[in-house]
Backbone:
């Protein structure tokens, strides 16, 4: 497949309520719908916050209050079989709905919590880290 | 707003200090179509497979094995995950445009689909729209590669002419190598001569 260069662009914020931030290169940015996300971005919500994002492969991730989730890896070039998604949830609650990477190559998707690794085959998961 | 910043950082550090002492819970859910997949939860202590709806396993520390899967009550799911579930974005919408043999111009039938695409972009406030060109295997691969590129670029041009911000579009093309319907070489297959627009 050929395409215009997508750089580090992994997806965008679709929903944001209350205290919802994106930590990027050590800075906390206020998250809002339409904000574009990059590899390495960490989503952070406060006590009354929540947010939801869609990645370029249609993966959906959303967070409840007091939550943190980082997009550590994202590769989506199906024609070259370059597929990878690694997201790390370090606290709070999250909902994951698989996208094309999960469908084309389930073993290329990994969700991590501080004490376990989750491999997923085309599905929806809820994760809570206390 | 800014005062929140110094408050969150100590909280993050505190959490890092206690990482491994907390606990995690993983719950398998049916997806939007009711389909249930599979999840494998693994750490140094062991591994558990979730393959039934609403099955959950808990982990308390990196060295302790995930617990035997057990059904999680709807009331518990609601209690713990209501906000995360409510924050789920609307699923992306996909539009497929088909083309005549060797043509990169839209047929009138598909031109009439454009208002639906524009409405979806507006409704979703989308900044992430992908336009992917495909073709069938009739003719040379190199030619088809360019044909699918022209089809994708043509649609991108039509969208920007109608006011869609160019920076929200990502255009790509596959040539023959990602057919909707798998065929041998040199086969005319109308369903493979297409451009897929996904609005996220």
Residues:
């Amino acid at each position: 497949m050929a395409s215009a260069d997508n750089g580090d662009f992994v997806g965008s914020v679709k929903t944001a309520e209350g205290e919802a931030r994106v930590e990027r290169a050590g800075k906390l940015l206020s998250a809002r719908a339409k904000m574009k996300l990059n590899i390495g971005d960490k989503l952070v919500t406060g006590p009354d916050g929540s947010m939801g994002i869609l990645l370029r492969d249609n993966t959906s991730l959303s967070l409840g209050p007091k939550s943190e989730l980082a997009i550590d890896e994202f590769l989506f070039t199906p024609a070259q079989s370059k597929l990878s998604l690694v997201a790390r949830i370090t606290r709070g609650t999250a909902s994951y709905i698989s996208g094309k990477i999960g469908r084309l190559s389930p073993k290329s998707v990994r969700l991590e919590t501080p004490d376990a690794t989750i491999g997923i085959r085309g599905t929806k998961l809820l994760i809570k880290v206390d | 707003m800014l005062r929140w910043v110094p408050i969150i950082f100590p909280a993050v550090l505190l959490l890092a200090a206690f990482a491994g002492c907390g606990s995690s819970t993983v719950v398998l859910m049916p997806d939007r179509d009711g389909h249930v997949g599979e999840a494998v939860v693994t750490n140094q202590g062991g591994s558990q497979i979730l393959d039934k709806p609403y099955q959950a396993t808990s982990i308390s520390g990196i060295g302790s094995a995930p617990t035997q899967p057990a059904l999680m009550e709807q009331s518990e799911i609601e209690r713990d995950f209501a906000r995360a579930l409510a924050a789920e974005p609307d699923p992306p919408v996909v539009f497929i445009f088909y083309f005549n043999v060797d043509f990169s111009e839209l047929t009138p039938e598909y031109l009439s689909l454009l208002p639906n695409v524009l409405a979806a972009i507006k409704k979703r406030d989308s900044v992430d729209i992908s336009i992917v060109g495909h073709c069938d295997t009739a003719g040379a691969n190199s030619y088809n590669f360019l044909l699918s590129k022209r089809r994708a670029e043509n649609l991108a041009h039509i969208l920007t002419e109608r006011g869609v911000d160019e920076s929200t579009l990502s255009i790509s093309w596959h040539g023959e190598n990602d057919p909707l319907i798998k065929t041998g070489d040199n086969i005319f297959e109308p369903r493979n001569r297409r451009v897929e627009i996904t609005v996220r």
